[in-house]
Design brief:
Helices cover 35% and strands 35% of the residues. By secondary structure, the chain is α+β, with helices and mostly antiparallel strands. It has 4 domains: 95 residues, Serine Threonine Protein Phosphatase 5, Tetratricopeptide repeat (Alpha Horseshoe); 59 residues, no CATH class; 220 residues, Phage tail protein beta-alpha-beta fold (3-Layer(bab) Sandwich); 141 residues, no CATH class. This is General secretion pathway protein D.
Amino acid sequence: MKKKKVASSVLPKLVLLPLLLGLLSGCATYLEERRADQLLAEGNTEAALVMLSQLAKSDPTGYRLKHLQVRDGYLRDQLQKARRSAAERKTSAAEEGYRTILRFDPQNEPALAGLAALERDAREAQTMAQANQSLKNGDTAGAMRSLSAVLAENSSQPEAQRLVQGIELERNRGLTADPALSEALKKPVTLELRDVGIQTVLEILSRTSNVNFVLDKDVKTDIKTTIFAKNTSVEDALNLVLRTSQLSKKILNESTLLIYADTEEKKKRYEDLVMRTFYLKNADPKRMQEMVKTLIAPKSMYVDDRFKMMVVRDNLDVIAAIERLVATYDIADPEVLLEVEILEVNSNGLLNLGIQYPDRITASVFGRAGQPGQLTVNELRNLNRNSFELFLPDPLLALNLKQTSTDAKTLANPRIRVTNRQKAKVLIGDKVPVITTTTNQTSSASMESVNYLDVGLKLEVVPEIHVNSEVTIAIDLEVSNVVKEVRSTTGLLAYQIGTRNASTMLRLRDGETQVLAGLLKDEQNNNSAGIPGLGTVPGVGRLFSNQTSTNGRSEIVLLITPRIVRSMPTPPAHVVEFPSGTADSASVRPMRLTPAGQYSGSDAQLTQPAAPPSEQPSAGAALSAPPSQSGTVQGAK
């Protein structure tokens, strides 16, 4: 009996214990949530997230969603701040922001990418510093290696791109331009050599200017030349000697020149060619290509209409000549603003004066039926005055005293901007529909089509702007109107169009106004209606008639004023006229010698008498030729 009582007393306690533990746990969770909310309100989001994370682990159903919402919002704000700091070059703040994000979301891809970008920027900054230091030290190759490493990792790095472009530009200038010759080749020298071998001449010039000459194996050293040149530069003398000896040179460096035979085979071997791309702004690439081929004939050329691009491959002299041609031809088309005033002055008058009499008087016969014209035979026999009815118009007479006058003025004032030698059109009016019916002979089916006629004022102008600021204008003016409608037997509607045309060409100065007038249209109609015989009696005829007179006058006046917006550009004098070489080769550097010098080559001897003793050179270095030759050379001190 006692055991049963003990069991019955313990059982309720065992049931209440889990309930009490659950209530205590719920109270603790509620207090933690309240604490997390308080931290959020205080701005301590990180501590709140720690508590919400613990709550989400203990009760995923109740707190996981809230934890994710708070975390995502916080991480979003931190990501924006970190990116802003990275953009402002605040590396420490940006790195701290990204690492804060990763503490709460280790797999956050934007934060991982941001940290990787910061590390890359740090490496780029270090590599860029090395590249700049290499450039300062003159180590272009080392700088290019550093810059290539940067661009391999980040191809859009602007500073690296700028430095690479600068290095390539300087390198390209050095490769495409001839090396600068020594100043010794510019100093004046006096040469008096007769029938001297080309090798001896080169030795003399080499000793005078300290310039080395390298001769191709096929250069004939037995070529004889004669030159008398006073106070000319070594370079000019050398050019003349080589040209008349059918030789050519290539500058290797400032003090070394390669001499080779001036043949196509040797040119292909030694002559450096340059690839030059011209981006045309205004000229047509095809026409530019035709002009260059006709005047200069470069070795290779290609044009692309899509980019308005022309690519040329040839030596520097030819490229320089093409540059002058492009500067001359690739100019913007001139434009002109045409101020046009078009006036249509209409004057119409109407005079209606006289007495208007009735056109007719009618009489009808009535029978008993009351219908006019219906009579029996007996009624016809018994006709009397009551059988007739006389009908007179109402009013019987009308006195017309009417005169009207109408003046109308239509003004159109278009302003048209048009490019040189291009057509501009102006239409002020309507499009009148004209319906055409086409019948199929096989199926007898008909089909209607609608065409439109331009009716109104139509103006077409084509200007041509000249260098002296004058404008030639081709004008085509047409004024049309619908006179009347014409309907065919099949019911189709057509129109009778009245038109006035004027075509002319005139030349005006900039701002000059020209008036085109005299397009007149006069109409006059006189109508008379009256009593026959009496209406035409002189003097009193107007008492028995009505006179109607109408007149109309229309005049078209055109005023046109050209105002040049962009005049015909005139290239500079050095572009309009420049040396272009010989018939064999194009060049903008003509062969010149000082006026006192005379030259003769192996195929064109120019003799010069011996100078008086007082004019013989007495200063400078004098080099004698071999015994079979004679000559002197005098250089500047």
